[in-house]
From TrEMBL:
Superkingdom assignment: Eukaryota
InterPro entries from the UniProt entry: Dimeric_a/b-barrel, Sec-metab_biosynth-assoc, YCII
Pfam family, one: YCII
Organism: Diacronema lutheri (Unicellular marine alga)
Name listed for the protein in its UniProt record: YCII-related domain-containing protein
Domain YCII-related: 18-99
Transmembrane segments: none
Amino acid sequence: MARVRVARQLSSAARGYVLLRYSYVPDMLERRQPHRAAHLEHWKRDIDSGALRLAGAYGPVDGALFVFRGKTRAYVEERARTDPYCLAELVPSTSTVDWTVVVGADLGTP
């Protein structure tokens, strides 16, 4: 049986996540190409710092989800506002939510 760790064993900072959701324009696949490299570069500093834990489109290409750790909603929202996809109006709406992880196999790595 897999061992599951309980979040109360970790500090609140270690379990605090922010989820960012993008909704894409209907013709995203056709319109994103000129902006894709800049979009990926935009998120590089958050990836390199470990703040952006996971990100990717959900299907077929309706939008994207981003999982941040150790950042505030205000920080994540500001980063989204300056994303080349958002500046090119490829993302008509975004939303953020604080997410407190309670259980999961990955809780052992703060």
